[in-house]
From TrEMBL:
This is DUF192 domain-containing protein. Pfam families: DUF192. Signal peptide: none annotated. InterPro entries: DUF192 (IPR003795), Saro_0823-like_sf (IPR038695). It comes from Nitrobacter winogradskyi (Nitrobacter agilis). It comes from the Bacteria. Transmembrane segments: none annotated.
Amino acid sequence: MLRLRDVGSGWFRAVLWIVLFSWIVVVVPDDAGVHAAELQPLEIATKTGVKIFSVEMAATPEEKATGLMHRKHLPDGQGMLFDFSPAQQVSMWMKNTYISLDMIFIGSNGRIVRIAENTEPLSTRIISSRGPAKGVLEVIGGTAKKYGIAPGDRVSHPLFNGR
């Protein structure tokens, strides 16, 4: 067994530590359910009141392509907001997504234009916004029904209103 005190001192020992630490960082797998993304508040004003969510942003092409894939858990009250600026026809799918989601399509004015409820996990079926959407909020399946979220409800977030 190689012991660090046996390899001498100086730069060789430092390089060995770096190599060992790098190996540990690369080999130890990340828990697919743990994510360090910054959460932002998002509000939806419904007929029954305001519901506040904590959302991760998906703005880059890589973030939008990955979305919530490979996750096994999404807490109630959390979600992911996809930025599709400027508003456009949006198509999503559930490939490699293990949890059922509600996909809430939001127009550039911050109004919900469509909700695809309880999407089928792992499906490659295309889910369309059916009109221009500037953003898509993905939350755990059943959320829209649970909180009375419906088309026409207003979403408050800097993506839509600069707040």
